[in-house]
Design brief:
The chain is mainly α. Helix content is about 70%, strand content about 5%. α4 runs antiparallel to α13.
Length: about 575
């Protein structure tokens, strides 16, 4: 493997092999960074001298109109290869040919190393991933863990209708939230790129714009959910659903709707800190706010006798606490000027919202497609046995069990969405650039594969814990097989989620939306044939995620900006 750099000799740019001792310090630094980050040994050949030998001679040429004339000719010879450069050949052509040859040789070496370097191997790149992933995992695990606690406490009420109503209302709220929160999803890669480039003004603008629009959209969605919760729930609750389940779901959703705006502001804050590669601050905020949720759940549900309404109130309190903490910290870090009257009185112009809306349109489309699938799944489970709600309750427990393990994969996806654009936009002499981003993306997929396999084994081993969620034996039995299928699905979910995180880092939101629509169509088709049982519903989840995996890997390996075919045309 050789390092090709530009060497100027007598005002002619030629590409030539040079010795280590003659390399400029900057070039040596780049090689050191490449060695450290990629694990590849980039070597240069030894030679006696670093300069091209100049061979001069006087040659005779025929003159126009007769006679002869003499001309001094200089040729350049490489002492390492003995190659003589003909002065009549354009040095630029030689440089291009050698650059392409160098790229081919390097890609052959890189391809061989890539096959060995995709899986984690404890090098410097893995250290960076672990440093980002551990707090992200802890942060992501808090929300489903608290959701699991909510399910646990509501399950102690001994009512399958309560569990079914909680599951239906939570799915509607989550779907509405993720549809209207399309802008915060775009903020992370934009903030990461602005931070990596050192443009603090652009960073502040992006965050302020997202806060403005998110609060406005959230207010409209919150009012709609509060005024017509029955209409929203009709999407997931069939007409034949027992009345108790409908009433409990309506009560829960009406209360949760009031905190949609705080939830939106928290999401923008979370996305901002994540884009700054700060995963510790969101973790601290989540710990404080969700600890309040856990403490308030038994107080509201049992002590005050509010039941499912108490679970909703406890969650709302946690959302308000989190939003307040994010607002406070964004101001302290001077990312947002809360005291500036112009911030409140002057909304961002449409032109300034261009980058956010361009990406947001793709995110919105993807959210609609994804949540259409999730709502269809919830409705299918509610329709399996409308008289008892046993299947819906079992599905709620299996879903919480699956999500609790899947947060590791969601965290890795989030790390990929910030690590890849941050590496891509960082200077080459700081370990950044296209090829460093390619190595980081490949390694992230390797981590997804390993984490998915580990989670599958762990969740299968933890199946006995399902009995803790409810004392109703029929619900326990209904949840067991879906939980097994969910654990096995983690085997492919790891690579799928991380590959989609890489696409988010590339801001490929439109492509993600297309993939989501195709996957959702596959799920709906599968539900049509298999959705009459819980096993069929969860197998349909497998169809859904398999399509996502194939599409995301195709983007990464074939059609995306880090695909091998796209990188071969540029020098390494």
């Amino acid at each position: 493997k050789y390092a090709f750099i530009l060497k100027q000799v007598e005002e002619i740019q030629v590409r030539e092999l040079i010795c280590t001792k003659s390399m400029p310090s900057a070039s040596m630094l780049v090689l050191a960074v490449l060695n450290t980050v990629s694990g590849l040994l980039v070597s240069v050949p030894r030679c006696a001298t670093a300069k091209l030998d100049v061979i001069s001679s006087t040659e005779t040429f025929p003159a126009r109109g007769g006679g002869i004339f003499k001309r001094r000719i200089h040729r350049y010879q490489s002492p390492s290869s003995g190659e003589v450069l003909d002065p009549n050949i354009n040095p630029t052509t030689i440089a291009k040919e050698k650059a392409l040859s160098a790229n081919d040789n390097k890609f052959k070496a890189a391809d061989a190393a890539a096959a060995r370097g995709v899986l984690p191997r404890g090098d410097a790149l893995d250290s960076i991933i672990i440093k980002l992933a551990l707090p992200a995992v802890a942060n992501f695990v808090i929300l489903p863990l608290v959701g699991t606690v909510d399910t646990f406490f509501v399950g102690q009420l001994g009512s399958s209708s309560a569990l079914a109503g909680l599951g239906a209302a939570n799915q509607v709220f989550s779907s509405v939230f993720f549809v209207v929160s399309f802008l915060p999803s775009v903020v992370t890669p934009l903030v990461a790129a602005a931070s990596a480039s050192g443009d603090e003004n652009l960073l502040r603008k992006r965050v302020a714009e997202a806060l403005w629009v998110s609060a406005l959209v959230g207010a409209f969605a919150s009012m709609a959910l509060f005024l017509v919760p029955n209409l929203a729930l009709s999407v997931v609750l069939p007409v034949a659903t027992i009345e108790t389940t409908k009433q409990l779901a309506t009560s829960y959703l009406s209360i949760r709707a009031l905190t949609l705006v705080p939830a939106m502001l928290s999401y923008v804050g979370f996305a901002t800190f994540r884009g700054l590669l700060d995963v510790i601050t969101p973790l601290k905020i989540a710990l404080v706010s969700q600890a309040a949720n856990v403490l308030l759940d038994p107080l509201f549900i049992f002590t005050l006798g509010l039941g499912v309404k108490g679970a909703a109130l406890a969650t709302c309190a946690a959302e308000i606490i989190a939003a307040g903490l994010y607002i406070r910290l964004l101001g302290l870090k001077k990312i947002v000027a809360w005291r500036d009257k112009l911030f409140w009185m002057r909304p961002p112009s449409f032109n300034r919202l261009g980058p956010l809306l361009a990406g947001g349109a793709g995110v919105l489309s993807r959210s609609i497609a994804m949540n259409t699938a999730f709502l269809a799944v919830t409705r299918a489970t509610q329709a399996i046995d409308t008289g008892s709600s046993t299947a819906a309750a079992g599905h709620q427990i299996a879903m919480q069990f699956w999500q609790l393990g899947g947060v590791v994969l969601f965290a890795l996806s989030a790390v990929a969405s910030i690590l890849v654009p941050a590496t891509l936009n960082a200077p080459v002499n700081s370990g950044g650039g296209t090829n460093a981003a390619k190595r980081a993306a490949d390694r992230m997929i390797g981590w997804g594969i390993v984490a998915g396999a580990a989670l599958a084994v762990a969740q299968l081993a933890a199946l006995p814990l399902l009995d803790l969620f409810t004392s109703v034996q029929d619900v326990r039995d209904a949840a067991r097989t879906p939980a097994i299928i969910g654990a096995l699905l983690q085997l492919m979910n790891g690579a799928a989620f991380v590959a989609e995180g890489i696409m988010q880092g590339h801001a490929a939101f439109t492509r993600l939306a297309v993939h989501a629509f195709v996957a959702s169509a596959g799920l709906l088709t599968s539900l049509h044939f298999m959705g009459h049982t819980l096993v069929g519903v969860w197998l349909s989840f497998g169809v859904f995620n398999l399509i996502r995996l194939i599409a995301a890997l195709h983007h990464h390996l074939v059609s995306g900006p880090l695909a091998k075919s796209k990188l071969r045309t540029a020098p390494l």
